[in-house]
Amino acid sequence: MIYSCMHTHTTFCDGEADAHTMCAAAWSRGFTSIGFSSHAPVTKKTGLKTGWHLPDERLEEYIAAIRREQKLWEGKLEVYLGLEVDFIRGLCGPADRDIQDLPLDYIIGAVHYVASPKNGELFTVDSPPEEFEHGLEDLFDRDGRALYDAYYDAYGAMISAGGCDILAHLDLIKKNNRGFAFFSPDAPEYLNRLERIADLAAEARTAGAQAGGRIPVVEVNTGGIIRGRTAEPYPSPAMQGRLYRRHVPLTINADAHGPDQLGGAYEIARETMISAGYGGMLIFKGRKDGRALWREEAL
Known about the structure:
TIM Barrel
């Protein structure tokens, strides 16, 4: 199995180590490549102030730092520059012109924020358990379906807007659903949402190919397993099966926030992909003529 990770965070956002340390760890573990995907700045656009996004004023510094690592590791480890860009309806997203114009190798699209149907207040679906409980109660009246509807509405809107090379942790909404505390993943209504998202992912690939734009790949993200929050990767084996039937390819990422997380739970991800029908995974190989390049490797 080829080891690579395009979803990697550093101390530029909420990671635990600098880019050079992460590269050294990847090299020591036999990785062929590593891509850095700091949480893109949001404050200037949205007014949100967080402790986990790259500050606007450090964007150029971040780009320069990753480009330095590319030169330092040339011939040994492939190093790529990306961003994980939040889609917040009406405020920001991967398709924004300022994001598309950046000199990035790839763009990861993600949904963390949803708006309360009561007052429009933004809520992070992957917040710590106690904070999540308060948000579910205060902003969604403990209505689990209303919350996952808001999440998948936002995710679908992000896919339709385009601009992504990788779709991140597709069913992140389950992170705080241990013991099916607020929704059942087997409920027909929930499964219908998965069907629609799978359709949109397939449609976005077709549209991107026809328009000469970005053609999104879905990541199998092991971050929830690594941090003890989920027993399975994002997306679930059931969702992977839906993507397989629509010929949507997958790549494996750790969503690593520290050196020890690189490659974590990759064997679990591999097993779920094989069970879903996949015989191979995609490995990112850079960008040429505006297109992301991918190579398929056997699982």
